[in-house]
């Protein structure tokens, strides 16, 4: 069974033209994909549909075996807890420390403070922020905030990890380290989709690329996309 399935999905904002049209795609459990395409091709809109930030105008999206169009509103938080997202604008809570921002998904899931301390401390150290766990986001650089956003997205090992330009504000060394973290999660079963303009990264890491052109995929993705 596909982890995510789009069937004839289209999306328009208000009364404008469709920004996505005729999207037919299946993402297999444990697959890893780059999402590519020129600016304006629809990458951000596609990611919004994947993390339930937007409803499609038409078509059906099935996720984790559930048809989202018929799912009761009260069931959506359960679905969202299985999705980790690295937003391009980070969306960190400015009044919380780096530690508490990363701990949020674990606390929402009811983890013990002992487990939270162990996992958050270990992950922040791994991304090079062990000395800045008490710092609040406004005092940190863009690259440091991005690493906090990555740590928060992966801390609870989501079934689906979505990242929008996750290496855009950091140097190549840290960027490669973050991609290796994503690959490690993928080896443990997480399905990964990374939206990027970085052709060098796509070529280096050699995972399948899904290319959007003018609001639809450049070639037929109606067949299942397998794990890399």
Low-confidence stretches: 222-228
Kindly report the spatial arrangement of strands forming the biggest sheet. Answer: 6-7-8-3-9-10
Number of strands: 11
Report how far apart the termini are. 17 Å
* Shape verdict: globular
Helix content: 25-40%
Strand content is 15-25%
Radius of gyration over all CA atoms, rounded:
17 Å
What does the model show?
By secondary structure, the chain is an alpha/beta fold. The protein has a domain at 93-152. Helices cover 32% and strands 24% of the residues. The protein is built from seven helices and eleven strands. Helix 3 (98-108) packs across helix 4 (113-126). The longest helix is centred in the C-terminal third of the chain and has 16 residues, at 172-187. The radius of gyration is 17 Å and the shape is globular. The two termini are 17 Å apart.
């Amino acid at each position: 069974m596909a982890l995510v399935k789009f069937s004839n999905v289209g999306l328009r904002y208000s009364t404008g033209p469709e920004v996505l049209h005729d999207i037919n795609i299946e993402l297999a459990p444990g697959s890893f994909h780059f999402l590519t395409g020129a600016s304006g091709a629809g990458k951000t809109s596609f990611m919004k549909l994947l993390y339930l930030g937007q409803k499609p105008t038409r078509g059906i999206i099935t996720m984790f075996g559930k048809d989202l169009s018929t799912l009761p509103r009260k069931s959506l938080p359960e679905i969202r807890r299985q999705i980790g997202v690295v937003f391009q604008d980070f969306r960190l809570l400015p009044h919380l420390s780096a530690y508490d921002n990363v701990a949020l998904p674990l606390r929402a899931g009811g983890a013990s403070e002992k487990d939270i301390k162990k996992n958050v401390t270990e992950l922040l150290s791994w991304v090079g922020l062990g000395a800045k766990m008490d710092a609040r986001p406004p005092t940190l650089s863009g690259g440091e905030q991005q690493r906090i956003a990555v740590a928060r997205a992966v801390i609870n090992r989501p079934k689906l990890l979505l990242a929008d330009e996750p290496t855009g504000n950091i140097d190549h060394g840290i960027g490669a380290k973050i991609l290796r973290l994503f690959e490690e999660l993928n080896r443990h079963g997480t399905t990964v989709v990374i939206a990027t303009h970085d052709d060098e990264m796509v070529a280096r890491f050699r995972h399948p690329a899904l290319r959007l052109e003018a609001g639809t995929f450049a070639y037929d993705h109606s067949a299942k996309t397998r794990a890399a």
